Structures are given as structure tokens and as C-alpha cells.
Amino acid sequence: MMRRLFGSVRARASLGATVVVAVALVAAGLAVLLVLRANLTDQAELQAEVDARDVASQVALGHAYGGLDLPDDRPVQVVDEGRRVVAVSEDLEAIEGAGSPAVRAGGSGEPVGDDDDDDDDPGRGEVSGDDPRMSSGSATVDGERADYRFAAVEATAPQGQTVTVYAGAPLATEQDAVGTVREAMLIGLPLLLVVVGGVTWLVTRRALRPVEGIRREMAAITASEDLSRRVPEPDAHDEVARLAVTTNETLAALEASVERQRRFVADASHELRSPIASLRTQLEVGSAHPELLDVEGAVRDTVRLQGLAADLLLLARLDAGERPGQGRIDVAALVREEVSQRSDRLPVAVNIRAGEAEVEGSRGQLARVLGNLLDNAQRHARSSVEVTVRREGAAVVVEVADDGGGVPVEERERIFERFVRLDDARSRDDGGAGLGLAIARDVAERHGGTLTVAEAERGARGTGGAVFALRLPVAGG
Questions:
Q1: How many Cβ atoms from other residues are within 10 Å of residue 89's Cβ?
Q2: Based on the domain organization, do 246 and 150 belong to the same domain?
Q3: 161 - beta bridge partners?
Q4: Contact 189, 27 (CB under 8 A)
Q5: What is the domain-level CATH number for residue 418?
Q6: Is 219 part of any domain?
């Protein structure tokens, strides 16, 4: 149960925020307590120093130890160099941390100087100007025991006797204030953490509500396999909204890909059915009546079936992300080689205008592209086909033009789709399966190039119809 609870983002966010706030509050509370304690202690030390210097000033003026004006509610002790107590405050009953634990004067109690005879006044003593020594201790004054901060100040009487005055200031105010703040923190901190955790939980829940909606819809899409569904997109313009938009874009791309795959399988099945059925019929007739076997037709259907299978295999490899090789290919030489293999078909004129026309890639795949373009041109040309190789900046351009009927503008992108053939091509007995141009564009793009079709200009040779332009980046360009 606990594992499931803290496995949610909401719980982890709430716990994390609570822990961070707790650490911050504890650190801030400790800092406040330390500063408060230091300030109040400084005030106690200042009070103790004022009392000690006041008594020391009386000693320096020659007042008798028994006649010193000492505070009644705070401990004061005057100790001579022999650590004998010469004066103490009246209600002091016990003391620790001062000059001596004694609380009764052991000195003569006589005045240090004669206040009645100015002529015999030996002069004025002095009070030490050094910073007082500070110490902590406790004392019992009028039956109440408390902690004190003691200040020790040295004073010299007019007759040269040096004493140390210890005056204490109570730390009760500091202790009460620190205790009050500490109790308030111990009570308020848990309550504040509960509030922080609750608010974080509610805010996180509200922020993640669209994510939960996206998750539920994705689960429903997975269960139903209906890729036409889309996840809800929040009205806010935040990360969750962008996640929903990206998810829907991914679903749209996936739906289109699956639809293309379904059409591909359906079209492939349809295209394979015809040659297989024809070949089976011929073999069955030949088996029953050998004299009626059309060997040439069977071979033709077998070749057609073999070519279709090769096209489907190449498309499958391209769809799987197969990358072309990195060899260097002389495009002009490759064009001449492909044209020479078609000497039994419609003649092809070759026009090489490029001095250096090397590209990087797969020789076999580029040969397949040129072969498909030449097959398409010879299939649709009336009398002539022309191949031109030239340089355009950092690209090698191969144009294959024919003087056929051309390609209508609205069909110039559609003919590069798989299994697409225009009506005039379907009427031909030797029409292909509609994969040649799709394969050619796929290979061109994987080589970093493009393949487009336009209307061929009629030149001196009188050619027209369609011109296919293959652009490939120059090797090392």
C-alpha cells in the first residue's frame, strides 16, 4: 500500500515539498533561536557590565566597602587580590561562577579613604578600561535561584588596593523568550507542514488531472486499437498541453503509417495475385496438356513475380531504416552502364555535361533508381528518351526526359506513392506494379537528395512529355 501510494507523482511531489519546507523551517528556526539567544545574552552582559563598572567607580572614589551602593535584586560580589570577599549585595544567599563562593564579607569594612577630611584624602583610584571578563553561573537572591551572566571589572582604590567587582545580570528573560519561541515552533511547525503537504497535494492533483485524462485515453486506445481517437488537449498553454498536442501528433502519424501499411499489404496481395494466378493456370494447363504449355508466358510471369518480390523486399528494407553505403560512385559512368543494358529497347540519348560527378552512397540502390527512371521513360515515350548529367553547385543532377504524354500537374506527387499507376499505364500489358517511382524517391531521399517530375521542354530534338530530375549531393561537398 505504501509503495503504491508513494509511487505516484502527486505523493512524491507532496512529500518532497514537505521535506524541503521542513528543512528550511528548521534551519530558519534554529537561526532565529541562535540570534535571539545571542541578542538577549548581549543585553544581559551589557547590564552586568554597567552594574560592575558602577560599583567599581564607587571603589575607585574611595567609598568604604560596607557603604557601597549595591543592587538589591541582582548579585554583586567584590573580591580582593587574595580572593577574599570584601563586599556582597544584601540579599545574595549563594553564588557560583563569580570570584568566590562566599556570600559574606570578610574584610574590615572600614572606608578606604576619609570622606570627612579633604586634606587627608589620598586622591582617587581608577577603574580598569579593559573589556570585562564574562562568565556564566548561577546565584540565589532572596530565596530565588536563577542563571546569571557575570561581568568582572577591576578597580583600584585610592590607597592602591586592587579589587575585582563581579556583577550578574539574570538570563531568565533570554531563557523565557527562547523557550517561548521554541514551543511555538514545535507546535506551529507540524501544523505548517500539514498545510504545505495538503496544498501541494491539491495543487499537484489539479495540475496532473489532464495527465490522468491523457493516460486513460491512451489506455482506451491501446485496448480498442482505434488509432483514430485522440487524447484531450487542455486549454492551458503549459507543458501538459504541449504533451497532449505531441501525443495527438504521434497518434496521427502512427495512424497514417498503419494505414499506409494496410494499403501496402492489400496492394501487394492484389499485385501478387495476378502473376501467381496466371502462372498457376499455365502450369496446370501444361500439366494436363503439355502441348498447350506457354513456356514464354510462364517465364514472363515468373520474371514479373521475381521483380515484384525484389521491389517489396527493397521497400521493406528501406522502411526498416536501412542506410545506404558510403562508397563513391561516378554518376556519369553509372548512367552509361544502365543505358547500355537497354540497347534492345527504345534508344536513349546520353548528354554528359558534368566534369566531375561523384556522389556517396550505395551503387546498387542508385543503379536501381536510374533503372526505374529509364524503364518508366521508355514505357511512356513515343520515340525518344534523353538522359542529361550536369552539375548545379554542390549537387549532381540527372534528368531523364521522354516525349510521351507527360504527367498532369495534379498527379505529379501522387505518382510517387506506392502502387499508384495512372490510367494510361494500367491499360498497358507491360505496365509495372506502381513501385518503381516510389522506390526511386525513397532511395534518393535516403542519399540526401530529391526526385521531382516536371514538364519537359521541347528542344531541338523535339522532345517533350515528362522530365524526372534526380538531385544528389556531390561527394565531399
A1: 24
A2: no
A3: none
A4: no
A5: 3.30.565.10
A6: no
Of 317, 344, 360, which residue is a domain's last? 317
Range of 249's domain?
239-317
| Closest to 365 measured CA to CA, from 308, 326, 398 | 326
Judge whether 429 lies within some domain.
Answer: yes
Burial class (CB in 10 A: 0-12, 13-18, 19+), 448: middle
Cell numbers that stand for 269 in this block: 496481395
Q: Of the candidates 177, 153, 156, which has an alpha carbon nearest to the alpha carbon of residue 167?
A: 153
pLDDT tens string, the chain, 477 residues long: the values are 455 555 577 788 888 888 888 898 889 889 988 998 889 889 988 999 999 899 999 989 988 888 888 888 889 999 998 889 999 988 888 989 888 888 887 644 343 334 444 444 556 778 877 788 999 999 998 888 999 999 999 999 888 889 999 999 998 888 888 888 888 888 888 888 888 888 888 888 887 788 888 888 888 888 888 888 888 888 877 788 888 899 899 989 888 878 877 877 777 777 777 778 877 887 888 788 787 777 777 787 787 788 778 877 877 777 777 777 778 899 999 999 998 887 777 888 888 887 678 899 888 889 989 989 998 888 888 888 999 999 988 899 999 999 888 888 888 888 888 777 665 444 444 556 678 888 899 889 989 999 999 988 764 444 468 999 999 999 876
> Given the DSSP bridges, would you call strands 144-156 and 133-141 parallel, antiparallel or unpaired?
antiparallel
- Distance (Å, rounded) from C-alpha 449 to C-alpha 319? 17
Please say whether the beta carbons of 70 and 54 come within 8 A.
no
**Domains in the chain: how many in total?**
3
- Tell whether 25 and 172 lie within a shared domain: yes
C-alpha cell at 448: 540526401
For residues 165-186, one letter each, b for 16 or more C-beta atoms within 10 angstroms of the residue's C-beta and e for the rest, the string is: bbbbbbbeebeeebeeeeeebe
- Lookup: cell for 25: 523551517
The arrangement of strands across the sheet holding 466-473 comes to 348-352, 385-392, 395-402, 466-473, 450-455
User: What DSSP line would sit under 376-439, residue for residue?
Assistant: HHHHH-SS-EEEEEEEETTEEEEEEEE-SS---GGGTTGGGSTT---HHHHTSTT---S-HHHH
Rounded Cα gap, residues 279 and 199, in angstroms: 75
Q: Has this prediction a pTM greater than 0.90? A: no
Determine, yes or no, domain membership for 209: no
319 C-beta neighbours (distance < 10 Å), count: 13
